[in-house]
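TL;DR need structure tokens for one chain.
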Amino acid sequence: MAISTDVTGGFTEEQRAIAELAFELGRKYADRDFDDHEASMSQWADLAESGLTGLGLPEEFGGGGGMLELCIAAERLGAGGYPAAKLIISTAVCGQILSRNGSAEQRERWLPSIASGQTKFCFALTEPGAGSNSNKLQTSARRVDGGWKISGEKTFISAIESSDAMVLVTQTPGYGGLSVFAFEHLDQPGITTQRVNVVAPAFEWQWSVFFDDLILPDEALIGEAGKGHRALFDGLNPERLIVASQCVGIGRWSLERGVKYAKDRIVFDVPIGAHQAVQHPLAEAYIQLEGAWALTQNACKLYDTGSQAGVESNIAKIAAVDAGFFATDKALQCFGGSGFTADTAMLQRFIYMRVMKTVPVARELGLNHVATAALGLPRSY
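>> reply
TL;DR here they are.
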């Protein structure tokens, strides 16, 4: 049985081709560390050349397929051993925000270069004082002649160092709500950055970003001022789906190695995999991964019909992160002390999967959404 490769039952011929190509591009970099940024950028160039950076974007702008195809690629990259973090922010989040909410001019300007991988976006939402409560954002966009003046601070913003453009979420005093902007030239006057010292393995660096009267033109505004909530969630739900897919893939990569080690490791004259104490956790991990992948595919199909798929996306993210973490933990345990050596790369995957329980949305907030939106329970916030 090939845990990481034989998962294409029910796929179309095109989907199988995407799956096989993505798996090879994950496997190509599987021996590189997750915080090897040179490897991440080299893989991104491979993804762009292969056309995978345009998945989920409209065909008329150089894209192809839907959210399901994008998530198949994300899952297979993880199963191959090296996920592509930039697919989450640039293609899934910013690409979907612009695709569903951008003007004709914005779509024409941005989507072809996102699809080709030429333009890499970062996404600025999180703030030090607001946490996950977007209603409490303090970064503001104030109307001035010919544009907008931006002031405030964002933090834990991924990959500014390797990005060409940004989607920015702000409050809009006088307009009653959030506004969303897209712009390039991240080194222009009015923007300063400071790297956040994150010690967990990460494909991209994290940054605090300070806006000091940054001036953006009118054409940077996506949609209407003060009505950016819809655009925001058109990006956040795909983020949950592609993270879910990535976590299933990493879980499969880990499980396959745990199973192989359990077959090969002989103690007291028998493979350790012959013992139920080893077998059962691995079997449970396999079952959880299969269930999480089914939930993720279901949510992708719903999103591709035009729905935001908010409940389904949160369910998929929670289930997939739990399944991926469980699989990585049980695989790590199979290795014993060897699992904590650099040669196996198991500990790095374990730490990364633990991070995914907290970001890009905390598990508890996902459960809150399921409780209130799906079960009708009263809100506590």
